[in-house]
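Subgroup meeting minutes
Present: P.N., E.W., G.H.
Scribe: E.W.

1. P.N. recapped why we're keeping a running log of single-chain structure predictions: easier to compare across weeks, and new members can see raw inputs and outputs side by side.
2. G.H. added today's entry (207 aa).
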Amino acid sequence: MGFESAGFQNVGSWLMRLARLDLTVFDDVKDEATATVPALAVMVVASFAAGLGSWLWWVTLDFHGGSEKIGEALFKTLILGGILQAALWLAWVYIAAMLLSRIFGAGADLNRMMRAMGLAFAPMVITILMVIDILAVPFAVIALGATLLLSNAAIQATTDAEPQQVIVANLAGFLVFAIVLGLLGNVAQIYEIGGISPGIFFVPLET
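Output recorded in log:
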């Protein structure tokens, strides 16, 4: 219990360093065994914050169908969408690690990558600002872009691979993450506005 608590006590300082773009925080987190659970917690919280943001944006629209549809949207984008996004994030990390180790022959430890990339997922919390309708899409795109860039830095900190190899591995994992969530945005749509996806992916590919 004390072992895990030690890691959670550092989350605030890690996030503050990340906000200052102090990327050396990834060097500290990657080798800190107590950081595994806190880093995953950051990712999970950010995932559900993205779902909350898209749900709040949907609620502000004029054509939802009352409390029943509001509850349906809450379940689909926040609860189910948050869970699916977290699962796809794990696939992102795994794909990147496998490409680096199996294809490029670089050192890539999955646990170290999960710690660093979990922390790098923190900018997704910005998606909660989708509630500001006029800026919903810009905030969602900024959150996703910042997460992608920080994930690249996080991977680079955990491996001896060349920068080009890191970019390829990161993009490969991200493409699976983004494509599947994008497709889920078209599943079980609510008044043709969004489906089972949080954040920017809540917006369907076809309107």
